[in-house]
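Box 3.1 A note on notation
Throughout this textbook, protein chains are presented in two layers. The first layer is the amino acid sequence; the second is a token string describing backbone geometry. Keep the layers aligned when reading.
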Amino acid sequence: MTRFTVNNQPVEYRMDPRTPLLWALRDASNLTGTKYGCGTGDCGACAVDVDGGLRLACQETIGALEGTFVTTIEGLSKDRGHPVQQALLATNVVQCGYCIPGIVMAASVLLRSNRNPSEDDIKGAIPNICRCGIYPRLIGAITEAGRSARGDAALPQEPEPQVETPAVE
């Protein structure tokens, strides 16, 4: 049995200790925000926070995580209120969304240690592959999230949908 904390809840997995964290989260804990992308640690879709550092859940065994604290996208914020989530929504960065949980986790780990990252800092901290090609907008959104986290600026609100009313003659 392997014991550690996931999203502030103690868990005990009765699985082979060699089981990748990704499958324990998805199959045993029903935390499906952590995505399977490549299985080789190259794409970042399975990124989670382990004791404050970025880890790829497809490459970590549950046995190696005994006693640690794991945070998944579900545990980052119940209401999508984390500055990174707010910035991605406010700036319309998200396209298909498959890679977004891993990107949000990578950016949140970055901003915890560096709330004023440079473009190079952001590029170095976000190892994720996004097939939609959101990278230029992503850098701007993470910069905005850093400003918000520092209290320098509020994130823009999502625009209200405009409803046209037909002219009546």
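The chain has a mean pLDDT of 92. The domain at 2-76 is CATH 3.10.20.30 (Ubiquitin-like (UB roll)).
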